[in-house]
Design goal:
Chains: A mainly alpha, B mainly alpha, C mainly alpha
Strand order of the largest sheet of chain B: 1-2
Helix content of chain B: over 70%
Strand content of chain B: under 5%
Number of helices of chain B: 19
Order of helices and strands of chain C: HHH
Order of helices and strands of chain B: HHEEHHHHHHHHHHHHHHHHH
CATH class of chain C: Mainly Alpha
Largest interface: A-C, 92 and 74 residues
Largest sheet of chain C: none
Oligomer: heterotrimer
Number of helices of chain C: 3
Helix content of chain C: over 70%
Shape of chain C: elongated
Largest sheet of chain B: 2 strands, antiparallel
Number of strands of chain B: 2
Structural class of chain C: mainly alpha
CATH topology of chain C: Helix Hairpins
Shape of chain B: globular
Distance between the termini of chain B: 23 Å
Radius of gyration of chain C: 17 Å
Number of domains of chain C: 1
Chain lengths: 169, 479, 103
């Protein structure tokens, strides 16, 4: 039991720390690396939730594919450090930050005042996170959105080729 | 478990035509935009016809993931017609701008398929995938003039703000899912109506966040700031498509989602607050849209703000939450699609490269240089302003009645006031076209196939105004 | 064996992560870092989905996570292509330097 709490605390602190690093680093590569660390922390959190398959895919897709793409673009554009961390109309960003922070505080206060009362995972949690059950559901009940996502990826593929190609005609 | 093949046909056909056949054609037939254009026009025609055939065939398919027939099929037809009209207008426009690449039509059809998913969604997952399929196609279409910094800037803004809004939408979905323990509309509806959710606070937060995400997609205040910039920067035909079909799609998702999450007069305590909040958003949206439009000198930007204002009018139907309100939305959306599309297409015909000929002053004396275009533009402006006998008048009337019937008289008064404000700039353009002398020589225009678009849009703008019962009789098949 | 960590902890954690992403989007000016902040937001949603899924014993949330991942991948491709196109035209990735129309 203590082991679980310990792991949760470790990953949670790691996730928050790496998220904060991602949004505060001047160098895009440093941000990207913090984000990779964040994805690993989340993967650990998914394991504490018994979602093994999601945890594996998290690392493969996010850290393995998306972040490689991001780092590739950063390198391609040869971006240096930002001179000024933030420059956009400061009043708006301060307001936005305050509202966003208020939202988080609000959620925490609400949850502390009205706990959900769910202190243990459902017994089914052990079975639903396995590859077997994920595959079973994805290719039966969720067949339609699964196929629809293929169209989405196709549109994204065509779109990015169109936008990034140097000469089209 | 069950797939009703007949009822699923519109969705399946557009999907196979795009992902199965269209891509192969484009891969092996290089540089033949005419073939691709014809192929995708026929795809949309086939999809529209199938949707019309399945109109009366209501029910669920794909394990309850999507609905068949009814309002979904009606919206399919609307999206397909808008898609066809946009393609007809886009071909001469893109050729003139020397940017006709056949992928434009691919992206347009994939956007239509995303809209169809939104209209048919019966599960939050399908809604999410549909919203994203439409949005991703739009991001690329907005940046389609890759050499134009305005177009790329529009794409960047649309992408960053659109993805930001998606974050809110999907966080809302997560909270709704958590508090109702379901993703399908039927179960969520029953939990919300019975008020049996264990976490009412989370449900209310989730509904609010979903409303934020959807309000962004319809460009309602305070999430409207992207609309003028994106519509001004994008290629004009793309703006035409995004501001009509895109808005129709967002409302086609908004209606079922908020029938489910905001059951007026039942259970959950947050419903009244939510309804009031949406009413305030609707009121501010129409005022902000119309007042900002008055200050514009660029016709494209003026039309963008007019589309913001129309989002406000349409939200009145959501606020009322009644079947009559939803029918009014569908009617007004149909009317709005034709008149707004027509106006944008006229702008695209008159536009010259490098964003030339887009100012109000360029429209001076248009009745003398281009009498037909000026006449049609005047008609669309009258309709957008809500002046009888055009379609816009009857649609507004239906929305106002729906709002009054559900006790939102103050909202209707604001709507009337903002309509009066809107008359100023809509008629301002008409006055400019008819009572000013042309500046310099009028330049030659060659509308090409866009003439067909204008003809159809004008015909529907008049028809829906004179004979609204044509459309209303279809509504009996809904719900 | 089930843990004794309450669901609330996961929800608070994901709210904090979501808000971190939101603040990143609002305050940063580098389009690529804004994009990474968007990824943070989506990941916070994923965490919410998975924790509800585990505590409610409902597989839907884990299914949703896959769709969010697919969408994130699609957005990555399109978003980075837009940034590339922007860089080709203006040699910048800073959103405040892109203001032909007001931001």
């Amino acid at each position: 039991m203590d082991m679980h709490v310990l792991l949760f605390a470790l990953f949670a602190v790691g996730a928050v720390a790496s998220a904060v690093l991602t949004v505060t680093r001047r160098n895009p590569v440093a941000s990207a690396m913090s984000l990779v660390a964040h994805f690993f922390m989340l993967s650990g959190l998914y394991l504490t939730l018994e979602a093994q398959f999601v945890a594996a895919v998290q690392v493969l897709v996010y850290a393995g594919a998306i972040m490689v793409l991001v780092v590739f673009v950063v390198m391609l554009l040869n971006l240096g450090n930002e001179h000024r961390l933030q420059e956009r109309s400061s009043l708006r960003s301060v307001m936005g930050t305050l509202i966003a922070a208020l939202f988080a505080v609000q959620v925490i206060i609400t949850l502390l005042a009205h706990p959900t009362g769910m202190n243990a995972m459902s017994p089914q949690a052990l079975t639903i996170g396995t590859t077997e059950s994920i595959g079973q559901t994805l290719f039966t009940t969720y067949l339609f959105p699964f196929e629809a996502v293929s169209l989405l990826l196709l549109a994204a593929l065509i779109g990015s080729v169109i936008l990034a190609k140097r000469h089209v005609k | 478990m069950g797939i009703d093949l007949f009822g699923s046909l519109p969705l399946v056909v557009i999907w196979l035509a795009l992902g199965g056949v269209g891509i192969v054609i484009q891969a092996f037939v290089r540089d033949n935009t005419r073939l691709v254009f014809g192929y995708y026009i026929s795809t949309l025609i086939a999809t529209g016809v199938l949707a019309a055939l399945t109109f009366g065939h209501t029910g669920l398919t794909f394990d309850g993931m999507v609905t068949m027939g009814g309002s979904g099929a009606f919206f399919d037809i609307l999206f397909c017609v808008t898609g066809i009209l946009t393609m007809l207008a886009a071909r001469p426009y893109l050729q003139r701008e020397d940017s006709e690449i056949d992928e434009f039509y691919t992206l347009l059809v994939s956007a239509v398929s995303g809209m169809m998913l939104m209209a048919h969604a019966n599960n939050l997952v399908v809604l999410f995938v549909g919203v994203e399929l439409m949005s991703i196609s739009f991001y690329v279409m907005a940046g389609f003039f890759r050499k134009s910094i305005r177009s790329i800037e529009a794409a960047l803004k649309y992408f960053l703000l659109g993805a930001f809004a998606t974050g809110f939408l999907v966080y809302g979905m997560a909270l709704v899912y958590g508090s109702t323990n379901a993703l399908d509309y039927a179960t969520i509806t029953s939990v919300v109506r019975a008020g049996t959710t264990p976490f009412p606070m989370l449900l209310a937060a989730g509904v609010t966040l979903m409303a934020v995400g959807l309000c962004f997609k319809i460009a309602a205040f305070p999430f409207h700031q992207w609309a003028p910039d994106v519509y001004q920067g994008s290629p004009t035909v793309v703006s035409a498509f995004m501001s009509t079909a895109g808005k129709a799609a967002a409302f086609s998702a908004f209606i079922p989602a908020f029938t489910m999450l905001m059951p007026v007069g039942a259970g959950a305590s947050y419903v009244m607050n939510m309804q009031l909040a949406l009413a305030v958003i609707a009121a501010v949206t129409m005022l902000v849209g119309n007042i900002s439009a008055v200050a514009q000198s660029n016709v494209k930007r003026m039309l963008a703000f007019s589309s913001v204002a129309h989002a406000g009018y349409l939200l009145m139907g959501i606020v009322s939450g009644t079947a009559a309100g939803h029918q009014a939305i569908v009617f007004y959306l149909t009317a709005y699609t034709f008149m707004q599309l027509g106006a944008f297409v006229i702008v695209s015909i008159l536009e010259r490269e490098n964003d030339g000929h887009l100012e109000f002053s360029d429209y001076a004396g248009l009745s003398k240089t281009h009498p037909v275009l000026a006449f049609l533009m005047a008609m669309f402006m009258f309709s957008l302003a809500g002046i009888p006998p055009f379609a816009g008048f009857f649609g507004k009337y239906m929305l106002f009645i729906a709002a009054i019937d559900s006790g939102f008289t103050w909202l209707t008064i604001i709507a009337v006031v903002s309509s009066v404000i809107s008359v100023y700039f809509y008629l301002g353009l008409v006055v400019k076209m008819y009572f000013s002398d042309p500046v310099g020589e009028g330049h030659a225009t060659n509308p090409g196939t866009a003439a067909l678009t204008l003809g159809v849009a004008a015909a529907f703008t008049v028809l829906l105004g004179v004979l609204p019962s044509v459309l209303q009789s279809m509504f009996t098949a809904f719900h | 064996m089930p843990t004794t960590i309450p669901l609330d902890w996961y929800l608070m954690l994901s709210a904090v992560l979501f808000v971190t992403g939101v603040i990143g989007v609002i305050t940063r000016r580098n389009a690529i870092i804004i994009f990474m902040s968007l990824e943070l937001m989506l990941n916070a949603v994923n965490l919410t989905m998975v924790s509800f899924s585990a505590y409610n014993g409902n597989i839907g949330g884990q299914m949703f996570v896959f769709f969010i991942m697919a969408v994130a991948a699609a957005e990555a491709a399109v978003g980075l292509a837009i940034v590339l196109a922007l860089f080709r035209n203006k040699q910048t990735v800073y959103v405040d330097e892109v203001n032909l129309m007001k931001w």
